[in-house]
């Protein structure tokens, strides 16, 4: 009688096919994706059917959170650094070369101009931590670019520094937001303004932002939205 | 990590050339790829956000409001908590007393969209026909855009049937409400719409409808409370 031979089976699985698939997927992801831009606040944009895409260049994004805090982000860091210097000059805030270098690495920012030098002294990680910490405190004047006109609030008005009037800018003493926009516009006429606001933001807040822009004769904006899918319709 | 299998044949005296099967183990490679894929999936966005163009009338011109045809005017007022109201035409003094003048609708498809489509039916049909041509690539995008513009201008200036929509968000309405309404304008191919401030009359209409005096301006609040007395 022949002995039943137990065949020794190799457990070796051929991973070549699997590898092919993963490489394919990887290539797909690498080619189609753009990296998430780091933003100090998370904003849920409302949905729309508009099919226009955000332009790649020459775009200034105005981030507005639910409390009406404003953050600016720009795709061109060179111009941003220039604007930082100019606006700083208007408000008698001087920056060291190191701080200006740090401004070139900013992706987005939202602090009052008087706090900007100390904010720029921080490393990127510290900046993030600072933002997180300050945001927890709710409505606090240490973050966000002030855009309150003199009549609105006394709290922010007291802390603000008066800008130099000789520059011929009409921006009011405490409305740093307007100042930023007009300075950035000076450098780049082509830049488009994109408003990216949270869907729960009150219209009151948006109105204030838009009215500030209208004062500067900026009448065309891009509203950043998500694509509306059939399910959310 | 590669494994070389050697076929051994026992007892062969001759020096045969050994047959080698080279087999590379891809498991670590797959591991690494998976890791990279996960990284890309978490750190990237596939969808670029959309943008919606919007133009506001400039501050200087705001003093002189654009002429709006009364017959086709439609005013949409967005209230708090997702309420939305509308009225057709222009309110006159007696109408302010009529509570049924201001009607309530919804953001849903059978709400505002129905109203807009009814008002803009002709234009909508024509644009829809063009869209069919566009999707079967009979016409190009640029031509499509200019044709749509042409239809909208015709409807407004020649036929005088295009609705002129006035969008009036109240302070308590959310940004989402505003985008939703602007979105409906796009869907219904409304060519002429603008975002405007609430007038005193509008405030009063909404106040009448809801009984909520937070819609009123400060001056109106005083007037209303003195009237009550």
Characterization of this structure:
The complex is a heterodimer of chains A (233) and B (229). Chain A has helices spanning 16-32, 77-90, 97-104, 116-121, 124-136, 155-159, 176-187, 203-215, and strands at 34-35, 47-48, 52-53, 59-64, 70-74, 108-109, 192-197, 220-227. Chain A contains 8 helices and 8 strands; from the N terminus they run αβββββααβααααβαβ. Chain A starts with 15 loop residues before the first helix and ends in a 6-residue tail after the last strand. Chain A is of the alpha/beta class. The longest helix of chain A is centred in the N-terminal third of the chain and has 17 residues, at 16-32. The relative contact order of chain A is 0.18. Chain A has one domain. Helix content of chain A is 38%, strand content 14%. With 229 residues, chain B is an alpha/beta fold. Chain B is 42% helix and 17% strand. In chain B, α3 packs antiparallel against α4. Chain B is elongated. The N and C termini of chain B lie far apart (93 Å). Residues 8-12 of chain B have low confidence and may be disordered. Chains A and B meet through α1, β1, β2, β3 and β7 of A and α1, β3, β4 and α5 of B.
- List the strand order in the largest sheet of chain B: 7-6-5-8-9
Q: How much is the radius of gyration of chain B in Å?
A: 32 Å
Report low-confidence residues of chain A grouped into runs of 5 or more: 150-171
Q: What kind of oligomer do you see?
A: heterodimer
Class by SSE composition of chain A: alpha/beta
The profile of the biggest β sheet of chain A is: 6 strands, mixed
* Residue fraction in strands of chain A: 5-15%
Number of domains of chain A: 1
General shape of chain B? elongated
Could you tell me which chain pair has the largest interface and how many residues each side has? A-B, 58 and 49 residues
Distance between the termini of chain B: 93 Å
**SSE pattern of chain A:** HEEEEEHHEHHHHEHE
